[in-house]
Amino acid sequence: MTSRETRIRRLKAQAKASMRILKRMSSLLEKQLTKAVHPIISLRAVQTLVTTIEAMELAAAGLCDKVGLISSDEDAAMIAFYEQPETEKTGREFDRLRKALELAVEQWDDNTRLSRQQIEAYEPTALNLRDRAMTHQFIALTRQVEAHKENLHALLYAHYLQFWVWDDKFQYSGQKQTD
Amino acid sequence: MKTTTLRRQLLALHRSQQRLFAGSVKSLQRQFEKLPEAEHFLAQVSKLATLVQGQTSGFEGMIAVAAEANLPEGNNSKALMDKMRAGEAYNFLSNKRFLVEHIGDLDEWRMALASISDIMEAAKPFKDTDAKVWSKACAMSWSVAAAQDEIHALARYTDSITATQEALLRTYGMKFWQGRGRIMRCEGDRASGTES
Q1: A129 and B9: CB-CB below 8 Å?
Q2: Nearest-CA neighbor of A60 among A145, A168, A163?
Q3: What residue in B sits closest to A154 (Cα-Cα)?
Q4: Of the four, A14, A84, A155, B35, which is 20 to 30 A from B157 by CA?
């Protein structure tokens, strides 16, 4: 097994490369969408995906930088970190953004299923082929965004961070159980 | 945007996507290569990479033929199918199908979680007696948890790569699918009927 430091370095490099790809995908789509209207993709949808994942990345990076490399057996140090109001605020924000992102992708997939089939079934004129190509480009973007979200989670785990919001309570791994 | 510009940019994007995917596969392999318990996990990762490779080589063959043929914009599926070597589009389609199946079968995602609890259960007696063993177990469990997300990311990368490939095929007016009995079908084929 590679050392924790090496792993984190690699994960960060991967996240950087994946964000670069994501930005290229979105700017390519944006360029096309400013000139033409697409039946199921809007400029706003593209921009929302990008700003959401960027905000998630910012939140994750903030938490990782702040917690540093606390070793896993130092539970007290970890709990002290989680107990800070700033940690809870950032953690909640990350979780909220994650849910918003998942919902946005899921809803687009669901809501446009029929339209996507129609676009593929229409007469393949030059205009229609452009619509089809853009649909697939947008799908590529959503999948890349989802991959990036997984990258951020891997990075959090590599920093021994795991948290969630349950019943509107901020909870974390290693939390003392109070019944 | 001109179609040729779009194609060029999508191809460059596709190359970067492939590089990122290959790099992530390699990093997971290096992380767990010395761990005998990870053998099955790594085999699944390798299979994922092999399928992506097969799909991509088929895709590249199709794109090469299309670029060579230099046909006007519109539906070129039938014309290009006749020019293509039989294996290329089939390589693309069959690997794509196996890839979807394989992603659905990646049981190691769930196995990883189960193994974490096994690790921690086994290490529990050492929690107060041997700090070194305990801390090693904790490190291992976090590492497996991270790997689980990495393989999730790998699966999403392949989806994204496939979508970019589909977009590029559309810019050349290509659309193929497998019909009954794995017969190659393409848009505009007289007998194509409806696509499932």
Answers
A1: no
A2: A163
A3: B146
A4: B35
| Mean pLDDT within A110-131 | 95
Reduced to 3 states, what is the DSSP secondary structure of residue A164?
Answer: strand
- Condensed to tens digits (0 to 9), the pLDDT of residues A70-81 reads 876 678 888 899
Taking the alpha carbons at both ends of chain B, their separation in whole angstroms is 31
> Are B173 and A124 an interchain contact pair (Cβ–Cβ within 8 Å)?
yes
Give long-range contacts, CB 8 A cutoff, 24+ apart: B80-83.
Answer: B80/B172, B80/B174, B81/B176, B81/B184, B81/B186, B81/B189
Structure tokens at A178: 């109070």
Residue of A101, A136, A142, A152 to mutate when probing chain B, most B C-beta within 10 A: A136
Name the token pair of B33: 């290569």
Q: Does B30 touch chain A (CB under 8 A)?
A: yes
Q: What is the pLDDT of residues A133-154, one digit of tens each?
A: 999 999 999 999 999 999 999 9
Residues in Cβ contact with B163 at an 8 Å cutoff, skipping those fewer than 6 apart: A136, A137, A139, A140, A143
Residue B56, both tokens? 């991509």
**Residue A7: its chain B contacts at CB < 8 A?**
31, 143, 146
Work out the minimum CA distance from B189 to partner chain A, whole angstroms: 13
Alpha carbons A93 and A83: distance in angstroms, whole number = 16
pTM, two decimal places? 0.93
Phi, psi at B130, each rounded to 5°: -130, 95
